[in-house]
């Protein structure tokens, strides 16, 4: 028996996020803040390349090991199934679009910085509910997952915490759109 790199997009994403956290915690203490956190409203400078880069890279940066592990527990569980169903490149594109959407909305609507993969987690959770999707049908699993996960985030958004429930909701919205418009049965697997 041998170990296989079975999910290149998901595994590379996980390893890259862990490397960034190690580098930030032990060697370059401002790395995450500078390159892996999208600034909030007023902090985005359209004249700086770094501002544009962080619209995508914020999903790689994490504040702590607990933050990273809580996100990647879901990504490593759900991601390989999605990568098998949709393909590595399409999943990478979905992750990039979700990063851009959550980052841009944060810049436009909120004053606090955003970092972490939780928007991607919610994209994957909602997208996973479409794996048994047949054209002309709405999966009951999608409705239940939408009600449970997004409903919880709407409820939690009224409490004071350091969690961006809006990024979760936006990520879930992206996953829903990907699920409706890109069925795994129509994709090149």
From TrEMBL:
Q: Does the keyword Membrane apply?
A: yes
- Classify the protein's membrane topology as the record does: Multi-pass membrane protein
Q: Which residues form a coiled coil?
A: none
Domain (Peptidase S54 rhomboid) ranges: 51-183
Q: Recorded GO terms, molecular function? A: serine-type endopeptidase activity
For this record, an example GO cellular component is: membrane
User: Where is it localised?
Assistant: Membrane
| Keyword vocabulary terms for this entry | Membrane, Transmembrane, Transmembrane helix
The record lists the membrane-crossing segments as: 12-32, 89-108, 114-133, 140-160, 166-183
Q: Which named protein is this?
A: Rhomboid family protein
């Amino acid at each position: 028996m041998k170990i296989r790199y079975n999910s290149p997009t998901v595994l590379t994403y996980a390893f890259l996020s862990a490397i960034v956290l190690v580098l930030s915690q032990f060697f370059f203490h401002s790395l995450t803040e500078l390159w892996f956190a999208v600034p909030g409203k007023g902090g985005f400078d359209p004249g700086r390349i770094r501002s544009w880069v962080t619209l995508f890279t914020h999903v790689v940066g994490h504040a702590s090991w607990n933050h990273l592990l809580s996100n990647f527990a879901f990504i490593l569980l759900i991601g390989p199934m999605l990568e098998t169903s949709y393909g590595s490149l399409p999943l990478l594109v979905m992750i990039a679009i979700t990063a851009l959407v959550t980052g841009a909305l944060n810049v436009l609507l909120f004053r606090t910085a955003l970092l972490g993969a939780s928007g991607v987690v919610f994209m994957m959770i909602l997208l996973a509910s479409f794996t048994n999707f047949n054209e002309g049908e709405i999966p009951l699993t999608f409705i239940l997952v939408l009600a449970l996960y997004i409903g919880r985030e709407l409820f939690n958004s009224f409490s004071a915490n350091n969690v961006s429930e809006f990024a979760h909701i936006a990520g879930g919205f992206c996953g829903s759109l990907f699920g409706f418009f890109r069925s795994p049965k129509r994709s090149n697997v």
